[in-house]
Please model this.
Amino acid sequence: MNDSRIEWLGDRALLLRLGSGIDATLNARTHVAAHALRAANLPGVVDIVPAYASLAVHYDPLVWHDIESELLPGERLAERVLALIDSIDLVGKRDAAESKQRIVEIPVCYGGDGGPDLADVARLAKLDEREVIARHSAGSYRVAMLGFAPGFPYLLGLDRSLHAPRRANPRTRVPAGSVAIGGAQTGIYPRELPGGWQIIGRTPLALFDAARDPPALLAPGQHVRFRAIDADEFARLRS
Model:
């Protein structure tokens, strides 16, 4: 039986908690649960939004209203959601899903003007810059969630040696496409934003485009790898 519980997000959304904290195994189970809920196609559910260890389930309360029931619409939906989650093997389905995942490749030009904090990350890790690049681009990452700004991926799977604290003085402007490290995670700024993560490189890919379908390049649960490129390839891909 899965250790899960429901919390309320107003009268149009539920929060399904599967645990707490930032943990790769727990996050993988969260994405399996999200997939199962989407596949169930429950009536009135309009969106399912996974985070590190929880799922927000947005719904139309009128669909779940029953004048003969003593339960509120959200309570009726909560019963269905918990029954569904408790009926599936999140661990087994996670392992099966992992083997079928397509890996999205993100080209990155490390260092230089696009990676002003690479030297600081190397110093903190007691490595040279080339080794930081090698370890960062060798990692296998999962999009734990999208947040902070539309299309911003929080990526789990960073080599422990590269964990680095956020900057003491955040920047007011971080260029779009900046690849950065914040604590035990790495991420990519989808557009110019303020931010305090350590910037080690930049990708020419557009992480978010409102005119694109879907707008976000990456989705929660996807797997990502980085590929080191030089300035010439960056310019070519960007054009």
